[in-house]
Amino acid sequence: MLGDISKAEKVYIATGYTDMRKSIDGLAAIVQQNFELNPFQNSLFLFCGRKRDRMKALYWEGDGFVLLYKRLENGCFQWPQDAQAVKCITPREFRWLMEGLSLNQPKAVKKVDVQNAL
């Protein structure tokens, strides 16, 4: 199915700004060269421009890449402004990001790592 990103095992966010003129090949090169990840793995890669009102998502679907583009009419994404790095985010954090919220929700109930809690 075209663009069924719900099947992605991991979601990676490229923090900082990305040149939104880049197409599939340019974004795949960033994933491979800058972040040393495999763009063909079952993961969703998110990129945001300087204005933070546009986002691109790159996803390998097994037989080709899907490039999704979203432009907000009002507001902007609460995109992490760290130096060019990549961060793996949870599906919950992805949902927050799509809803215009920050990845760091101070009042959210955090999951407990049972192995490190004992």
Automatic annotation (TrEMBL):
Protein name: IS66 Orf2 like protein
A Pfam family the protein falls into: TnpB_IS66
Species assigned in the record: Clostridium coskatii
Domain of life according to the entry: Bacteria
